[in-house]
Amino acid sequence: MARVEHPISLQLIGITKVYPSAIALNDVSLSIRGGEVVGLIGENGAGKSTLMKVLGGTIRPDEGQIVIDGVSTAGLTVSRALDHGIAFVHQELNPFSNLDVTDNVLLGRELRKGLFGFIDRKAMEDRVRPLLDMLGTRFGPSDPVSELSLADRQLLEIARALSTNVRLIILDEPTSSLTLSETQRLLDVIRHLRDDGVAVLFITHRLSEVEMVADRVVGLRDGRNAGALAREDIDKDAMVRLMIGRPVSQFYEKPGETSGNIVLEARGLRTAANPRETVDLTLGGGEILGLAGLVGAGRTELARAIFGIDPREDGVVTVEGIPVPAGSVTEAIRAGICLVPEDRKSQGLFLDFAISQNIAMPSLAKLARYGFVDTQAELALAGDAREKLGIKAPRLDRPAGELSGGNQQKIVLAKWLATRPKVIILDEPTRGIDVGAKAEVYRLMRALAGDGAAILMISSDMEEVIGVSSRVAVMSRGRITGMLEHEELSEERILRLAVE
Amino acid sequence: MHRKDLGLAVLIVCVGTIVALVNPRFLSPINLANTANLIGLFGLFSIAQAFVIVTGGIELSIGSVIALLGVIFIDLISTFGVAWPLALAIVLVLAVLIGLLHGWLVTRLGLQPFVVTLCGLLIYRGVARFYTRDGTAGFSFGADFPALEYLVAGRTAGVPHSVIAFAIVAVIAWLVLHRTVFGRHLFAVGKNEEAARYSGIDTRRVIIVSYVLCMLLTGLSAVFFAMYTRSVQPASHGNFYELYGIAAAVLGGFSLRGGEGSIIGVVLGVILLQVLQNLVNLLGIPSSLNFAVMGSVILVGVIADTQFMAYREKRRQAAAMSTLDMQNRTPKRSEAAPEH
Q1: Model confidence at A477, in pLDDT bands (50, 70, 90)?
Q2: Does B79 lie at the interface with A, CB-CB under 8 angstroms?
Q3: Looking at the complex, does the CB of residue B108 fall below 8 Å from at least one CB of chain A?
Q4: How far apart are CA A302 and CA A312, in angstroms?
Q5: With helix as H, strand as E and coil as C, how does B266-306 read?
Q6: Confidence of residue A384 (pLDDT cuts 50, 70, 90)
Q7: Which one has a higher pLDDT value, A305 or B230?
Q8: Do A262 and A282 contact (CB within 8 A), yes or no?
Q9: How many interchain CB pairs under 8 A, A with B?
Q10: Does residue B333 register a pLDDT over 50?
Q11: Minimal CB count within 10 Å: which of A125, A178, B50, B332?
């Protein structure tokens, strides 16, 4: 990518956006110039995503001005944002997996040739190849997107943004599904872009990355400006104070000891994803077992097989010594197993359904009389959960989709806690949720373990795995390559086992 | 009662009033009884359709099944001399088997409901025509089944029994869909099948049962229609009935993506469609325009609904905006830190 000829100068002044149920942005201002990396931080629901949508042109603010290169406007459209060179890399990746890399990168801007305007495939590939080279991708211009990993899809999205005349690139949580080395690579790309005169707006919950790459940090809290930090003032404590308005004293506490009785045992378990490898695992009451590994190591598949979403190829799973029939979620729940899935929105929740209905879903049969739903009991159950888990929702009959990510995750937790599980499997429980909600989830996990539950936590966040787990099992290519006790935990040890 | 249902009820009253004003025969006992009878007949399979649509599926073979089972029902009685209660039982068992087959194809083989039931539509119609050698299945002249006729085609205090059957089925369907755990599961599977699976709902069973319920009601409906027409011409009997059911469900607020709708809505939808049909007859509109009138009303209704929703959203937005202005005008604007 060549140097940007006319670096952007952009200011948002007094932006306000109101929704019927909430004030998303209240008099927020932000400025950014070419050649600058600005980190935008804030808890979930602080208004970051809305602010970005204002920039991307998908939301028109109710009040305020957007000044680009000295020209003021009340709102952008998607095409005008593109004309100004504003490119947006979304948090949720949804490439067209039926198309290949080149088609995805240049979708809607296909190059044409000849009288009839047929697609000029060769020219398109020539245009895409240098972008991929710059990003150092392992995939080529004609690879099918359906075969790309999550990390590669992230890079694909960035390539798509760079293929326009980009002057400002907005990255929304770009590293949440990346491994350590991939994250490093992405940070390098960001520095590279900055040096070329591109303005980079970087949104993330991973404060260490902001610390590494940002020239300036802007904090949002409850839809308002919470302050800014200059380069020399950026450190973790200062950022956390910006986000939540107070210091977080102690994030991680030493987890409790296991009571010694084995609650969950898996013997000779083989999953469809890795049919050649067998997994043996025991989980004691009161312990939090971290399951670490790279993306694609087979951790989610293991969880799905234990929970009965997928059939087991082979092997036995027992809860407190009693075998759990394979391939049935109903049986797994009856045995006391529950799973908080990786994808909250499509697997964990019915976004259009009421909060109370979501929480009661797995316990409906227990709440019912003669097969009829007991609405009173349902509301009572949900009210109880709201109080216990501190779910910030004024009304339980509103759709779950209206809440912030952290509160949505609490609803998923609540729905399972209502079944009084003995084994709780959490798949990336804090992905995409903010610092405050994270701390609450950890506290909840410790409390549950304290009550004797056995917890299996899948996580790609090293800090989290080390901070929260009593023991850590590391997986690589479908098998468990090592088991580390709490005292032995270090990032380096886990990584070494993860790439074995 | 949902807002949508209320709007539909108002529309029915409006259309009814207009028709009554233009042609007072609309309110004559004989016309009301006839229209009510048709509402009952068409209502049975429309509710059947709703149970499949709520799961995100669709059942296109309803009309063909009504023809096939109608032919079999009449033939069992008039050719084989089977007692009618037994014939009814056989027809309902066949209906359940068809439902099981459709559910099985959809859930176990992963075929799309549209494809499965479209093939059903073609197959059952063909079989019905072959079975009668493309002739008409009817009761022989002078055949008499007083008990059956009283039950299915009779009247009590002027109310056709088809309407009573429809009312009973509607009440049961309302309880099942809106009050039971199974009903909640139907909505859940329709809204988000994956999340339903992750919540421990046996999604395959729920879907299969929805097709079985649908066909069971369709089987019942087939008997009512057979006794209504007394002879079944398999090439045309029940044609387009599945589309009629879909139209009633959509009018009643069911989303074809699944997970939305109410029984009150589909009942009102059926009533509106019959009143419209009656309107065409009574106002002297050429009956060839029948479908065109129905289609136009549905289209206008759906457009009005989305426009009204958008308008309401705007109003709520404006209200929220003015509350914010009030808040911001009150003193101190804290924490408005400067950027540079």
Answers
A1: confident
A2: no
A3: no
A4: 9
A5: HHHHHHHHHHHHHHHHHCCCCHHHHHHHHHHHHHHHHHHHH
A6: very high
A7: A305
A8: yes
A9: 103
A10: no
A11: B332
- Mean per-residue pLDDT for B152-158? 85
> How many Å apart are CA B313 and CA A44, to the nearest integer?
24
Q: What is the ipTM of this complex?
A: 0.83
In the chain, the amino acid numbered A64 is G
- Least Cα distance to B73 among B90, B96, B98 occurs for B90
Domains of chain A with CATH codes: 9-95+148-244 (3.40.50.300), 262-498 (3.40.50.300)
Which residues of A fall within a CB distance of 8 Å from B184?
Answer: 357, 361, 364, 373
Residue pLDDT, tens place only, B250-309:
988 898 999 999 999 999 999 999 999 998 888 888 888 888 988 898 888 888 878 887
What residues pair up with A220 in beta bridges, in sequence order? A42, A225
| B336 Cβ under 8 Å from any chain A Cβ | yes
Q: What is the DSSP letter of A1?
A: -
Q: CB-based contact (8 Å) between A346 and chain B? A: yes
**Strand residues in A141-192 grouped as ranges (E):** 168-172
Q: Is B332 on the interface with A (CB under 8 A)?
A: no
Instruction: Report residue B326 as tokens.
Output: 């009030």
In angstroms, the Cα distances linking B40 to A102, B34, B60 are: 58, 10, 20
Asked if B117 contacts B111 with a C-beta cutoff of 8 angstroms, the reply is: no
Does B313 contact A20 at a Cβ distance shorter than 8 Å?
Answer: yes
From first CA to last CA, the distance across chain B in angstroms is 55
**Do A225 and B197 lie within an 8 Å CB cutoff?**
no
B3-285 to CATH, choices 1.10.3470, 1.25.40, 1.10.10, 2.40.128: 1.10.3470
Does residue A495 sit in helix, strand or coil? Answer: helix
Helix (H) or strand (E) holding A263: strand A262-271
For chain B positions 192-231, those within 8 Å of chain A (CB to CB) are 192, 194-202
Q: Which two tokens stand for residue B77?
A: 């009685």
Q: How far apart are CA A244 and CA A266, in angstroms?
A: 41
Contacts by B144-147, CB closer than 8 A, 24 or more apart: B145/B77, B145/B84, B147/B84
d(CA B259, CA B80): 44
Nearest CA in chain A to B336: A225
Contacts of B195 in chain A (CB under 8 A): 346-350
pLDDT digits (tens, 9 = 90+) for A66-91: 999 989 888 888 888 888 999 888 76
Read off the pLDDT band of B339 (50, 70, 90): very low
Domain boundaries, chain B: 3-285
So what's the pLDDT on residue A50? 86
pLDDT digits (tens, 9 = 90+) for B38-86: 999 999 999 999 999 999 999 999 999 999 999 999 999 988 989 999 9
Least confident of B94-98, B132-136, B246-250: B132-136
Q: Is B191 on the interface with A (CB under 8 A)?
A: yes
The pLDDT of residue B324? 65
The residue type of B72 is I
**A323 DSSP β-pair partners:** A318
Instruction: Pick from A135-144, A215-224, A292-301, B203-212 the range whose average pLDDT is largest.
Output: B203-212
**What ranges make up the beta strands (E) of A308-357?**
312-319, 322-323, 337-340
